[in-house]
Sequence to fold (282 residues):
Amino acid sequence: MELQRGELHPDARLYTVGALIVAFALGPGAAPPAAAQSSVEVTPLRLELKAAPGGTTTQAITVSNTGKDAVRVRATISDWHLSRDGSPQFVTAADPKYSASGWTRVAPPEIVVDAGKDTTVRFTLAVPADAPPAGYRTGILFEFGPATGSPIAKPREVVFKSRIATLIYVNVGEPPAAVDLTDVRTRALPDQPTQIIAVLKNTGQRTVRTRGTLTLYDKSNAVISRTVVPDVPLLPESEREVAIIAINPDTPRPPPGEYRVEIKIDVGLPALIVGETTLKVS
Fold:
């Protein structure tokens, strides 16, 4: 595979991602519970589907109640996007041309799951015949609440709800990938491993995922440490930051000095994306 190189420079920022959202609804004068947590699991949390214009697919999602009480599960379809640091944001699609929510139906939309039991929620996705090749997306939000009673909090009553999302990627056709590495910078926080932040810009119309390596070299060009670039999505026509641990925690910490950092990222292009910067170890 051919390599492309570019000189980039250090600075700071961070990446994180998650799909679990927890919310509290508190009545006047009520105190939040000391340790409230969801006892429901959803599998899978991510689905990547290949589809053709005019095609239809039905997929199953398993909801498991691992708690001691029955729960009411409500399933809704939601648009989402990723913030610059990679966190899912469940809001109305900012760019509806990549939304697959209008193509999706879920059943059943509401069900009670007994303690220790599993249930299956299915969704059907029908791609329009005129859908152009692109990377589309939607999501299924599962909200959990008490099996009985009103989901609306009464005065001085605490209602605990949690939501888990299954993120759905729908790849229609094979549009060409187009990704650039626009910056590389370091991020160092107290009591946390130093990170290298790679800023990637996707100018194409397909979702790609990252993989690769970060290698640390000393002045003699000897390899000091090698870490893996995390597998994260880069949505169409978007820019995001990917955080990579600068020094492999399984290797000895290098002595103080300046080191060369080389990042090689594979997003499915004919050539690897390669960037370099420096890291000062104190």
Summary: The radius of gyration is 22 Å. Residues 38-172 form a domain with the Immunoglobulin-like fold (CATH 2.60.40.10). Confidence is low (pLDDT under 50) at residues 1-37.
